[in-house]
Predict the structure.
Amino acid sequence: MKTTEFSSALLREHYVCVTHGSGLPIYVFPKKLTTACAIFAVRYGSLDCTLSQKDGTARDCPAGVAHFLEHKLFENEDGSDSFARFSALGADANAYTSYDRTAYTFNCSEHFDEALAELLHFVTHPHFTEKSVRKERGIIAEEIRMYADNPWERCFRNLLRLTYRNHPMRHDICGTEASIQKITPEILYSCYQSFYTPENMVLAVCGDVTVEQVLAVADRVLPQHWGIKTPRMLCEDLADRIEGKRRVTQKMPVAKPLFSIGVKDRVAGLDAPTRFRREMALSLLCDILFSRAGKLYNDLFERQIISPAFSSGYSATDTLGFLCISGEADHPEEVLSVINGYVASLLSDGIPDEDFERCRRVMYADEIRAYDSTEEIANRLVSFALDGIEMFSCPSLLQSITKSELESLLAQIWRDDCIAMSVIAPQEKK
Amino acid sequence: MNPKLVFDADALSLRVCETDKFKAGLLSVSAILPIDRKKAPLITLLLAVLRRGTVKYPTLESLNRRLDYLWGAELSIRNFYRGDCQILGFTVELLDSAFLPEAEEESLTTVLDLLCQILFHPLLDENGRLLEKYVESEKQFHCEAIRSLKNNPRSYASERCSELLYRDDLCGASSLGTEKEIMAITPEELTRFWRELLASLSFSCFYVGAENPETLAQALRSTLGAALDRRELTTEPPTAAAVKAVRRPIAHAAHNEEIEAGQSHLLLGFTTDTVMTSSDFYACSLLNEMLGVSPSSRLFVHVREKLSLCYHCASSYNSFKGTLTVHCGLHRDNRARAEEEIMAQISQLADGTFDEDELLAAKRSLISAYRQTEDHPGAAESFCFRRSLAGREETPAEAMRLIEAVTRDEVIAVAKRLTLHTVYFLEGTLADGGEEDCDEND
């Protein structure tokens, strides 16, 4: 077994990465807190909707399979439910699906070994039946409706649909009420076999536990191998701009218009460290441009062009990047026009030193604070492992980002044909 | 992690959990008032106005910049109800100085000074009134918040059920008020209210982190303590009782409302006669746990998993008011089946149709939640604050011992007392999710 240890003098923390005999990378981060957290994650999310088949052909799956699978994996062959088993141990289990990953997790303050055994067992032993799949459709349909009724969610989803016309990013993570009707046990098994393989997964543990303890459970519970190693069909977003219309409006019963402005970024072809540096730099830039201590926010706020609710963020997968700004305003076009004017002034005059330093400090603090929770640490371990980045490199990487680097990134991404806006407008009074 | 009382003066007290487990410390500064239907919205508006600008930091931008510069110090306003009390104050989160990459000015005193600036030295005009510009714009935002309540059907349904469940109690009063009330408030009135409020407030502070308790006490005394001592008039702090059980109704009330949404929301509010200070408080907490907290609870297993009626079905217990509320997001056609099943599960618990394993799992889950409070400064603060407010002084360890000792009969006895008080149904009238009604344009 290959073991690598990482430590940080600044954070006064360390963790170990071991590759298990099955090929599964296991990360253990010892932390003297009462709560231990384990996450078993797979590099498989809603964007992975094409299967590579044995004969080399590709097979398209209905939208929402990764999420459906996440729901169904808790069910065991003997009819028992893993949630109940975790509960009997006093462990709090959960799971989530994102665009590029699915994660199964638990927190506990006792019976860690038993809970870890349960996690490793149920994720590596799928069991789907026609009856249970049929039953799950009703539950997921309600989940879809719950999100659809939330205007912020709807606004964001409409924006993605506009921005990614020919890419699975336009599909909701849960799929649609129609697409989940097409999901069968056979599709679930095929996707499980293709994606749930040791090499495509990661186990991260943080708490008052030892590497030996975790490995002992892994050795006892994990099969020699599971799944069938299949080449991953990366769905590249080939369009370097937003094709077609760049505005979308939907009416809902909201009091005031909500908006989401999206800036499409291209990261395809970049290696992991370059992509990660870009992600960090663009997150910092986002804060400089849109934070509540910044000139732009306060100008919009003082002039009552926007309401207090206002947020921004940059996120990236290994094939695409996306910057989003959301808020409430009577005239969303005016907001975009003020933002464009501000960006133009930064492009001509440069980013003020004070803003750069201030936002760097905020981001640094966020980085340090992340190491106060076992759950957050385990989540970070998973993210960094799947992205292929060493987690402790963040604070020094942040210090190495320069103002001129941000200025050139801003010039690169802020292009009219890469910016779209989605609005949820109030309905006319009946 | 048991808090130590560092000092307890007339208007200011400090409790500290000193620990080097965390890289950031948390300080809460809270004043407790009885909820007053007229004053509650005024407090909400006032806090927003005070946060806009002070003599030293005249704009929101300058205030926020100062905080950012202190390595992302977070200063948040707290304004919420606990039982029949309104809690107002601040929370401060500060990075421990041991983790700063360069020597820094005294962050703690600076943030506390900022807090005092906000409370005692807001920007005033030449007539000593709160700045009209800030008051008027915050009134607008406040009214928008009232109008936006319906934006999220799920939280709106929850809000409406609380209004009905607590209609005869202080906490049934909205902390936002009505648009008409808010628009009628003048800068003079708000200024007068600010001065009166300040004259009567006393603050309890709670800190979790690595800062030396004496250093912290000194910083608090020299900032907030000094400002409180300088107050012009002092009236007795109002007495407030947070714990008061909602009375058992003679018959339950049912309310239906429609909303243009795909999902409907069914809420059932029950009285339990058990509050945090009751001897069977933990029996009631366990009943809630068994009914609808975790994915192995009755509501999750039966209403969601077995009958596929919903995605979300959970219960919550308000131990200040002795109420238990079930919330289920579902298709409108499934209302009757869901309601029937929820009531059937409660009946089964009251009949004692559960085994020791189910009770044991609930105990483990609740004990685990209490044990984990020491891993989160916010959870530790919340545990101590809630207990202190209710007048039930105990440590998480004592709470865990009491949970262990709860018997099956005690849970059954509490379940038998559950009385339906309010049924609220927010009916989603959209046949489909309205997914495709978008207009794209250039």
Notes: Chain B touches chain A through 74 residues (CB under 8 Å). The mean pLDDT of chain B is 94.
